[in-house]
Specification:
single chain; about 140 residues; four-stranded parallel β-sheet; two-stranded parallel ribbon; about 35% helix
């Protein structure tokens, strides 16, 4: 993800929903002036870092016993409406690039793959909106 507005918005929603850390993966990722404006200063206190290799990051999280949830529509993904979070492990939510989604290599490492049920003609939504919906549902389940 290299869209400054999306990066800033992810920092804001992460703050609002208590995400412990954001790891942005990719090349040429810049935490720019526009990102700072969109983040409303949350970049100052929401823990975040940039890594170049997502496969290495997810493999490391798996080794640390994180429960990996990928947000992607696949033939075998579970609707977020039907998903029940049932783990005591720390959780990592993997969101993909808005254009290409979550790679097949990462999906193979996921413990669960979830998608948001959509009712219109389009089968995609903005990555921040999708992340917000998913984080809200996961947070709700963790509170119970």
């Amino acid at each position: 993800m290299n869209n400054a507005a999306n990066i800033g918005s992810l920092l804001r929603i992460s703050d609002a929903l208590g995400v412990e850390e954001l790891i942005f993966c990719g090349e040429n990722l810049q935490l720019s002036k526009r990102m700072k404006k969109t983040s409303r200063s949350t970049e100052k206190y929401v823990s975040h870092k940039v890594e170049s290799d997502i496969l290495q990051v997810v493999t490391s999280l798996k080794a640390k016993r994180y429960f990996i949830i990928a947000l992607e529509i696949t033939d075998s993904s579970t609707s977020l409406d039907d998903f029940t979070l049932n783990t005591n492990q720390p959780i990592a939510l993997i969101i993909g690039n808005e254009n290409i989604g979550v790679s097949e290599d990462i999906l193979k490492l996921a413990d669960e793959i979830v998608h948001i049920k959509m009712f219109g003609e389009n089968t995609s939504m903005n990555v921040v909106q999708a992340t917000s919906i998913t984080l809200y549902e996961l947070t709700k389940q963790l509170q119970n």
